């Protein structure tokens, strides 16, 4: 779905590979001349709706492998800009809508996004608030509390899914609205990843066993009240930080409305401790059988890592599937 250019409120992160623009003189020795103003929608927005009259510096940020990221310093403050020369605006539309939805909860902090759109030379961009990060990831208990407040505040009346499809890493993530959570998770999360593993690697074993599991997960949700909560969707350590005041900040979402427990699917590389869970469950009480479902939600992300990065993640995914098949006698 190609996004229409427009003003919205969203955010993003700085963990992307960056590339500096070439610099030339233009009111300041540190301002890059990319193109005429009318051919540069980023600069055009900053110097109009962004309320700036002068861009003083553009500097690369972070390092990654999907997008380029730059900090734009201006006389009206700083902006964070991501660009991708190969992908159209639909990817940034998904990010923008997710960040906007999280921002509107007024709970946990996310960088506020402002605009996304197409680049005249091909590719796309997103402009966001620039957040000064602190020196640590911040207080674990405060992170748990704020995350739970977001889950509690934002519910969907459309069921499980999201307004647009988006990506988890670079993997497409289908968010077709579905009234039943078990059906949504079975089809649009586990089922898709299993199909991808078979198509990419010819892995009929993990596909067949995974499908057996998918057909038998219903009993793991007995006596559980499942509401469609707004989820960040990709909450690992690289997407968690704090601002200079120690408030938690979450970045680079793969948002959708789902079972709140699915938010912990990346806990194997998120570093959540006891204080995080204690604070979280004070706001969002723990549901019966939480421990039995925890690995089911990790499985989606292990499968995605298998599909993105190769066979090193297969044993973890296979172990989870085998353990559940034994537990469920499936």
Number of helices: 8
Domains counted in the coordinates: how many? 2
Average residue pLDDT: 88
Helix/strand/pairing class, anyone?
alpha+beta
CATH architecture of the largest domain: Alpha-Beta Complex
Q: Could you give the distance between the termini? A: 39 Å
Please summarize the sheet with the most strands: 6 strands, antiparallel
CATH topology of the largest domain: Aminoglycoside 3'-phosphotransferase, Chain: A, domain 2
Given this structure, which CATH class of the largest domain is correct?
Alpha Beta
Percent of residues in beta strands? 15-25%
- Form type: globular
Strand element count? 12
GO molecular function: ATP binding; kinase activity; protein-ribulosamine 3-kinase activity
Organism: Daucus carota subsp. sativus (Carrot)
Family: Belongs to the fructosamine kinase family.
Keywords: ATP-binding, Chloroplast, Kinase, Nucleotide-binding, Plastid, Transferase
Please characterize this protein's 3D structure.
By secondary structure, the protein is of the alpha+beta class. The chain has 2 domains: 6-129, Phosphorylase Kinase, domain 1 (2-Layer Sandwich); 140-327, Alpha-Beta Complex (Aminoglycoside 3'-phosphotransferase, Chain: A, domain 2). The protein contains 8 helices and 12 strands. Strand 5 (113-118) and strand 6 form a beta hairpin. The longest helix has 21 residues, at 181-201.
């Amino acid at each position: 779905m190609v996004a229409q250019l427009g003003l919205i409120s969203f955010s993003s992160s700085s963990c992307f590979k960056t590339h500096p623009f070439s610099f030339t003189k233009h009111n300041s020795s540190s301002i890059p001349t990319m193109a005429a103003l009318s051919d540069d929608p980023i600069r055009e927005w900053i110097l109009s709706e962004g309320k700036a009259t002068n861009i003083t510096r553009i500097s690369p940020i972070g390092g990654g492998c999907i997008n380029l990221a730059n900090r734009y310093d201006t006389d009206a403050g700083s902006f964070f800009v991501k660009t991708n020369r190969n992908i159209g605006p639909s990817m940034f539309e998904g990010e923008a809508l997710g960040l906007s939805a999280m921002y509107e909860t007024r709970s946990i902090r996310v960088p506020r996004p402002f605009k996304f759109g197409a680049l005249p030379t091909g590719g796309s961009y997103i402009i966001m608030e620039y957040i000064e990060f602190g020196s640590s990831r911040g207080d674990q208990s405060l992170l748990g509390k704020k995350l739970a407040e977001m889950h509690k505040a934002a519910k969907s009346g459309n069921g499980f899914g999201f307004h647009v499809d988006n990506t988890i890493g670079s993997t497409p993530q289908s968010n077709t609205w579905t009234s039943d959570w078990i059906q949504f998770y079975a089809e649009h999360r586990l089922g898709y990843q299993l199909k991808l593993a078979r198509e990419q690697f010819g892995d009929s074993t993990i596909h067949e066993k995974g499908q057996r599991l998918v057909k038998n997960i219903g009993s793991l949700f007995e006596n559980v009240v499942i509401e469609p909560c707004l989820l960040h969707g990709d909450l690992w350590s690289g997407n968690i930080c704090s601002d200079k005041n120690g408030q938690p900040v979450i970045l680079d979402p793969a948002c959708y409305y789902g079972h709140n427990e699915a938010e912990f699917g990346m806990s194997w590389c998120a570093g959540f401790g006891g204080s995080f869970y204690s604070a979280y469950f004070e706001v969002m009480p723990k549901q019966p059988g939480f421990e039995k479902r925890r690995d089911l939600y990790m499985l989606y992300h292990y499968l995605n890592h298998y599909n993105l990065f190769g066979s090193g993640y297969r044993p973890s995914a296979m172990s989870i599937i085998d353990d559940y098949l034994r537990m469920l006698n499936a």
